[in-house]
Specification:
This is Protein SprT. With 164 residues, the protein is an alpha+beta fold. It folds into two domains: 97 residues, 2-Layer Sandwich (Zincin-like), CATH 3.30.2010; 47 residues, no CATH class. A three-stranded mixed beta sheet has the order 1-3-2. It is elongated, with a radius of gyration of 23 Å. The chain starts with a helix and ends with a strand.
Length: 164
């Protein structure tokens, strides 16, 4: 899996070098990115991070668009300096002029959301409940108090949990 990704990163760099007639510093490439982002260019660390799950699920488009998108950030930084806008005209020119790709800021890959447990709290108000995250529920168990803004009563765990 990383071989194709690394090869595409290298191809993007070679394409930029041919276009600009100069050499560019190669970044470290990592598949240690989770969540909603497909890729991130860490400009100060010279590091490209990619989401392995989104890569597996969208390989062709990911290799073509996402890899070029992130490499374009690195090229733009080297060409135009650190004070440019992340998706500004310099980056857009690289996406369109060098890679002949649309300068899309965001991907449209489907993201699997994991279910989350909510802990239901209540107050003196009728038909009101407050779903707390696991983190907030733990804080309550350690002594933190939360209050209803309407009735000013302390919110109390109802014993109910729900999956969202």
């Amino acid at each position: 899996m990383p071989e194709l990704l690394n090869a595409r990163v290298e191809a993007c760099y070679q394409q930029a070098e041919a276009f600009f007639r100069r050499r560019f510093t190669r970044p470290e490439v990592s598949l240690k990115l989770r969540g909603q982002k497909a890729g991130v260019a860490h400009l100060d660390e010279n590091l490209l991070r990619f989401n392995p799950q989104l890569y597996r699920e969208n390989q062709d488009h990911f290799l073509k668009q996402t890899v070029a998108h992130e490499v374009a950030h690195m090229i733009a930084r080297e060409m135009f300096g650190p004070h440019i806008q992340p998706h500004g005209e310099e980056w857009q020119l690289i996406m369109q002029g060098v890679y002949e790709l649309p300068p899309d800021r965001c991907h449209t890959y489907e993201i699997q959301r994991r279910s989350v447990t909510r802990y239901v709290y209540s107050c003196a108000c009728p038909d009101r409940d407050f779903p707390f995250s696991a983190q907030r529920h733990t804080l309550v168990r350690k002594g933190r108090r939360y209050y209803c803004r309407s009735c000013k009563a302390t919110l109390v765990f109802s014993g109910e949990q729900r999956e969202e």
